[in-house]
Amino acid sequence: MRLLEKLLVNNPLYAWMQRREVANLHRLAPLPAGLTIMDLGCGRGVETALIAATFRPGRLVAFDLDRRQVLEAGRRLSHNGAADAALLMADASRLPFGDERFDAAVEMAVMHHVPDWRAALREVVRVLKPGGSFHFLDISKRRYGIGMKLMGHDMQALFTIDEFRTALEDAGMTLERGIGRPVTPVFDMVGVARKAA
Ligand SMILES: C[S@@+](CC[C@H](N)C(=O)[O-])C[C@H]1O[C@@H](n2cnc3c(N)ncnc32)[C@H](O)[C@@H]1O
Questions:
Q1: Per-residue pLDDT tens for 29-53?
Q2: Whether the CB of 182 sits within 6 Å of ligand 1
Q3: pTM over 0.90
Q4: Residue from 6, 48, 65, 135 to probe ligand 1 pocket by mutation (most atoms less than 8 Å from CB)
Q5: Residue 108 to residue 138: CA distance in whole angstroms
Q6: Which distant-in-sequence residues (6+ apart) come within 8 Å of 183 by Cβ?
Q7: In ligand 1, which atom is closest to the CA atom of 41?
Q8: Under a CB-based contact definition with an 8 Å cutoff, are residues 59 and 37 in contact?
Q9: N or C: which terminus of the chain has fewer CB atoms within 10 Å of its end residue's CB?
Q10: 133: phi > 0 → left, psi -120 to 50 → alpha, else beta; which?
């Protein structure tokens, strides 16, 4: 991430929005406690702690491509009691996990960073168990226009909401909650997709 985006996402206002958005992601398709959940692109761990508190997984595995974010997430989680989460460095488009390991996957504002985001969606499907759910919150290419360029995004690699919807289906997921509006203003797409049981 460029410095501009780091400043935008690593601050208390963004953390407040994350709290509301994680609660919404759970409300859209509530899950029982005790599941195995993947936090895809955990950033500095704020959402990891929120997922731990809201989804109450039995096992939580969180990863990010950026080593510094992973280290910061580790410090944060060891301070707030969610230290049981497994943290690692990994690339969303080449997940270091076996097939059908997770009951659910959660991503917040990551797919628009991944050049091959379609491959990342296929990877999510691969590691989800049959019937597993994918809770996503993201930003489409229409959202910020030039702002996305200033943050260093490759405009060719960004997606429209329709492209994302089609790619989810092509990857083998069914939209359980159609792509809707998030509860805070930063993002413009939220939903839950499910792998066939
Ligand atoms: C806008 S931040 C969001 C972080 C976190 N999800 C949040 O909402 O605070 C995007 C994150 O995606 C991570 N990221 C970018 N490309 C990635 C990839 N290919 N695999 C995993 N993480 C990636 C970045 O390092 C960064 O932490």
A1: 999 999 999 999 999 999 999 999 9
A2: no
A3: yes
A4: 65
A5: 6
A6: 20, 21, 24, 190
A7: 22
A8: yes
A9: C
A10: beta
